[in-house]
Design a protein that fits this description.
The complex is a heterotrimer of chains A (about 240), B (about 325) and C (about 300).
Chain A: E1 4-13, E2 16-26, E3 31-36, H1 42-50, E4 57-62, E5 65-66, H2 72-77, E6 80-83, H3 95-102, H4 113-119, H5 136-148, E7 154-158, H6 166-180, E8 185-189, H7 193-199, E9 202-207, E10 210-216, H8 222-230
Parallel strand pairs in A: 3-8, 3-9, 6-7, 7-8
Antiparallel strand pairs in A: 1-2, 1-4, 4-5, 9-10
Helix pairs in contact in A: 3-5
Chain B: E1 2-4, H1 8-30, H2 33-58, H3 67-82, H4 87-109, H5 114-134, E2 144-145, H6 154-181, H7 183-191, H8 195-200, H9 205-231, E3 233-234, H10 236-239, H11 243-255, H12 260-277, H13 282-298, H14 302-311, E4 321-323
Antiparallel strand pairs in B: 1-4, 2-3
Chain C: H1 2-29, H2 36-54, H3 58-86, H4 90-111, E1 116-117, E2 129-132, E3 136-139, H5 140-162, H6 164-174, H7 176-181, H8 186-211, E4 213-214, H9 219-233, H10 238-258, H11 262-284, H12 286-300
Antiparallel strand pairs in C: 1-4, 2-3
Helix pairs in contact in C: 1-5, 1-8, 1-9, 1-10, 2-3, 2-4, 2-8, 2-9, 3-4, 3-8, 5-6, 5-8, 6-8, 9-10, 9-11, 10-11
Classes of the chains: A alpha/beta (about 240), B mainly alpha (about 325), C mainly alpha (about 300).
Chain lengths: ~240, ~325, ~300
């Protein structure tokens, strides 16, 4: 059984169809890279998965349970966590308070505040600092840690490298490395195609709200992804 | 795509409004004293609603303290008339002074956020009430009256006040209409409470808000002065009562917040409700509060907003109406 | 002089009590509840009913009505504020104002124009006093009210800063959508916060009735006092509320010394002066404010 199954999903802003008829399913432990130009509907899709945007039609199933209409906190409780674009930390709270908030739903699992600090050692000395005073990399690590505190089955990372220096991005991905081999299912949005191709084992490319390409990473090429990215040759899409 | 301002409905509305105004102007010729007095009250209600609407519906400033302007308008009239100025001149002059005062107040009141501004205005009204009580001429809560109006015979006085109220109402509505048609007025309608958006279209929201604030101060003061002329007694407690603002809120919420036609419709409904239900006393007030509450929860654009979205009719040629040949997609 | 000051601080305790619920709602839900004063008077009447008909001590009465008012606050949030807040900043003001009118007039309908007081039901406590050196007497009741204010303010502050619920409420206040995305039930947190705020209103309503008399329309001045104390205190922290409340009470007491009508005026003027000074300071350090505001938005978007 797929851990996450999305069928014919439509998300709209008023008349505007930001996500159109998107379907895919993820197996446990899969790492999916979601690519596409700005405005292709990636963030909207992820926010709809997490329950922050209402779904117009279609369905979302998590572990075989329909989640299309449930509230976002119930989805976290069911095992789906989103690290939102722009991090969205509670800036007047400390790192530790942000992390503890992540544990609100109380799902059983290995993640504790201490383990987050082991995974992101750069946070240790900032433990009681308000997150508003921290660097982008530290904030990003806190945001990821906060999502992990809910012990998710599916972790969604929206543009974790946005606004970070290449060095810091390396650090963040190095920390994620360990996570990626623990069986957590991951969806990540990454603008850096090279990185996406090394990290993920499957790729979905979106254009104007539609899935243009959905393929195991090993069976596609940079050229095919680029084509789907710009929509220059729609016949190149692998359905 | 076609852009136009005047629709056939708005042309018809203006023609009808002109006819109605003409008829109203002729009312004193044939109507009884009671009818004239009730119509005067209606005109005052229209002013109160339109001015509160200017502030809240267009300026985005919900005030619980518009009784400040109402009471001060009456008080200034008393003071100026006591100094020997003709009572009708005193009404206009008094409202002008209140307008100047509201400009001063706007310098700091407009920096407050929604709820803070709302109660802040209430506090100001309370201060004004207390200060007016200190004036020996007013004799505290005992109050006084606009004695100089007694120089006019009772029938002539009634008609003069009627005329003053009619002119005041039409003048203030026209003024509001003119302000709304200026570029900044239009922008305020388009974006209402989004100040960043206002910045991006090159409108200074503070200046425009100030304009609405001073207009509301002036107009509400005119209403207070007219009310004083009508009832002649001035007791600070009744003029500085928050009930006046409750009435304004009821009228605008029911009629349509931020809709020019809405304030007028709301005043008519309030006038009717008062005529029919005021004898029920406390229950009437409970009803007003409950209706205002329900409208703000379930129909925040009021009756006129509801009509507008259903029928796409706009009687007042305020904005430009753009007709697209096909439905366009909006970005996020 | 010292005596006036002490009495003023004690009065400030009452204002802190009435203001803390308003400030809590304002900080946490970004809503100024205009029915705040009316709800306090509702509580006072409920306790009066219990005392008058069942002979129940007001101190027991308040324990009985706490859950009632808590549920009322939760319903207020769920049925009205939640819906109103979605319509922008202005609608909650209008909705709660409408509610205040309804409550005020329903109470008038029920209880008429007579004033009521809870002081007859607490026996000697209503006039007993502590004697301080220098021949100064302070009423026991105002002292207890000040202590109650300190306990409630301290409790709320600790709860917000130290507990999981407090973190959830703060997260919901800062950004309800993100709070939901990390597993916080924002509706529940907001409902609980409103219930807590309304429970403090119940306590302050009883304090109102114990200190003196009240009638159906007593809510409006209580709302203004609570609002002024909150704004003078800076609306940033709950302890600021206590300072604001004491400043307000001191200003009123000295106002009353100057002129018989000066009590209210003194308080209003201090409120205006604080407002004016704060706004002019803000104008001078506008750049700093803009930086603060833009970082704040970063969190809230």
């Amino acid at each position: 059984m797929s851990i996450l199954k999305i069928s014919d999903l439509d998300v709209r802003y008023g008349q505007f169809r930001a996500v159109r008829g998107v379907s895919f399913a993820l197996e446990k432990g899969e790492i999916l890279a979601l690519v596409g130009a700005n405005g292709a509907g990636k963030t909207t899709l992820l926010r709809a998965l997490a329950g922050a945007n209402p779904v117009f039609s279609g369905s979302i199933q998590l572990n075989g349970t329909d989640m299309t209409q449930t509230s976002s906190h119930a989805r976290v409780a069911a095992g789906l966590a989103l690290v939102p674009e722009g991090r969205k930390l509670f800036l007047d709270m400390s790192v530790e308070e942000n992390l503890r908030l992540g544990a609100t739903v109380g799902r059983p699992g290995d993640w504790t505040v201490e383990r987050v600090f082991e995974t992101f050692p750069n946070l240790v000395k900032r433990r009681h600092a308000p997150t508003g005073t921290m660097s982008g990399g530290e904030q990003q690590a806190t945001a990821i840690g906060r999502a992990l505190m809910s012990n998710p089955d599916v972790l969604i990372l929206d543009e974790v490298s946005l606004g970070l220096s290449p060095l810091v991005v390396d650090q963040v991905y190095a920390s994620l490395e360990a996570l990626m081999h623990t069986g957590t299912t991951i969806i990540l949005v990454e603008q850096d195609l090279t990185r996406a191709m090394t990290v993920a084992d499957r790729v979905i490319c979106m254009l104007e709200g539609r899935v243009m390409l959905d393929s195991p990473m090993a069976e596609t090429s940079r050229e095919a992804i680029t084509q789907a990215y710009f929509g220059s040759a729609e016949t190149g899409a692998v359905a | 795509m076609t852009i136009h301002r005047w629709t056939w409905q708005s042309k018809l509305t203006f023609a009808l409004a002109a006819v109605v105004l003409l008829l109203l102007a002729l009312v004193p010729g044939f109507a009884s004293g009671g009818v004239i007095e009730r119509l005067t009250v209606l005109f005052i209600y229209v002013i109160l609603a339109a001015m509160w609407n200017a502030l809240a519906g267009y300026g985005g400033l919900v005030s619980i303290g518009n009784q400040l302007f109402f009471g001060l308008g009456a008080y200034m009239t008393i003071r100026l008339a006591d100094a020997g100025i003709n009572p009708f001149a005193a009404m206009a002059l008094g409202a002008g002074i209140v307008a100047g005062l509201s400009w001063l107040l706007s310098l700091f009141m407009l920096h407050l956020r929604a709820g803070e501004f709302a109660i802040g205005m209430w506090v100001l009204a309370s201060i004004a009430h207390l200060c007016v009580n200190l004036d020996p001429l007013i004799q505290g809560e005992t109050g006084t009256s606009l004695i100089s109006l007694n120089a006019y015979a009772i029938d002539a006085r009634r008609v003069l006040i009627f005329w003053a109220a009619l002119i005041g109402m039409v003048g203030l509505l026209a003024l509001l209409f003119a302000v709304l048609r200026t570029p900044s007025g239009l922008a305020m309608q388009a974006i209402r409470d989004n100040e960043e958006a206002a910045d991006s279209v090159g409108v200074n929201p503070m200046r425009t808000k100030r304009l609405f604030f001073v207009l509301a101060g002036f107009g509400t003061a005119v209403a207070g002065a007219l009310w004083l002329a009508q009832v002649s007694a001035f007791q600070p407690k009744t003029y500085f009562s928050v009930q006046w603002t409750a009435y304004m809120i009821f009228m605008v919420l029911v009629g349509g917040l931020g809709r020019f036609e809405g304030a007028i419709l709301g005043a008519l409904i309030f006038f009717a409700a008062e005529t029919w239900f005021a004898d029920t006393g406390v229950w009437y007030l409970v009803g007003l509060g409950a209706v205002a509450m329900l409208f703000s929860l379930f129909l925040p654009k009021g009756l006129w907003g509801w009509v507008e979205t259903r029928t796409h009719i706009s009687l007042m040629p305020l904005g430009y109406r753009v007709q697209f040949d096909t439905q366009s997609e909006q970005g996020r | 002089m010292i005596n006036i000051l002490i009495q003023a601080v004690l009065l400030g305790g009452y204002y802190a009590l009435i203001a803390c619920g308003l400030a809590f709602m304002f900080q946490v839900m970004r809503v100024i509840n205009l029915a705040h004063g009316a709800l306090a008077v509702v509580s006072a009447y409920l306790v009066w009913l219990l005392a008058d008909s069942a002979g129940l001590s007001p101190f027991l009465g308040v324990l009985l009505i706490l859950p009632v008012m808590g549920i009322a606050g939760w319903l207020l949030q769920r049925l009205m504020l939640e819906r109103a807040v979605r319509g922008g900043e202005l609608l909650p003001v209008l909705t709660t104002f409408g509610l205040a009118i309804v409550l005020d007039n329903l109470m008038f309908q029920q209880f008429g124009a007579n004033t009521r007081s809870l002081s007859p039901y607490i026996g000697d406590l209503s006039w007993e006093a502590f004697e301080l050196p220098g021949n100064i007497y302070v009423g026991k009741l105002p002292v207890y009210i000040l202590v109650a204010a300190l306990v409630i303010l301290g409790g709320l502050d600790l709860m917000l800063k130290r507990t999981a619920l407090g973190r959830q409420i703060r997260a919901t206040a800062a950004d309800p959508v993100t709070a939901g995305l990390i597993g916080v039930d924002a509706r529940r947190a907001a409902g609980i916060a409103a219930a807590l705020a309304t429970m403090t209103v119940a306590v302050s309503g009883v304090a109102l009735g114990l200190r003196g008399t009240f009638d159906a329309y007593a809510g409006a001045p209580q709302l203004l006092f609570a609002f002024e104390a909150t704004i003078i205190g800076g609306a940033r922290s709950l302890w600021g509320v206590l300072i604001g409340a004491i400043v307000l009470a001191v200003a009123q007491s000295f106002g009353a010394q100057i002129h018989p009508q000066g009590f209210l005026l003194g308080g209003h003027l201090v409120f205006l002066i604080v407002l004016f000074v704060r706004l002019s300071l803000k104008g001078r350090s506008l750049n700093l404010m803009q930086i603060l505001r833009s970082t704040g938005k970063g969190a809230a978007q």
